[in-house]
What does this fold into?
Amino acid sequence: MNLRHPSRRTLREWLDTGGPASLDEHIGTCLRCAGRVEDLAEPSPAMGELLSQVLAPPVDLVPRLSDGINSKLRDRADLRLLGGMLGLPIETTRLIVREPPSD
Ligand SMILES: [Zn+2]
It folds into this structure.
């Protein structure tokens, strides 16, 4: 193994072209150079844009979550009101009243 670490420029060339092959063993066994290669291999801006599109949450996520939470809170308030009218704790009311199936 070559004990000298190649320059960033040489590592960039190795990353882009795959050569020179004499660096393969050094990069494969040297944590420092392997880490530098990983840093140099950051996705291009175009790839970053594609990844952000793929990984972005659906545009309607917040309204859907908000609707779901509000619906659950309304159901819970209804149960609490009914339980209060019957003089029962909410958990007992929940056992008696079957909750509607969720979407
Ligand atoms: Zn090295």
Q: What stands out?
A: Residues 61-96 form one domain. Residues 79 and 94 are 7 Å apart (CA to CA). Residues 5, 26, 30, 32-33 surround zinc ion (CB under 6 Å).
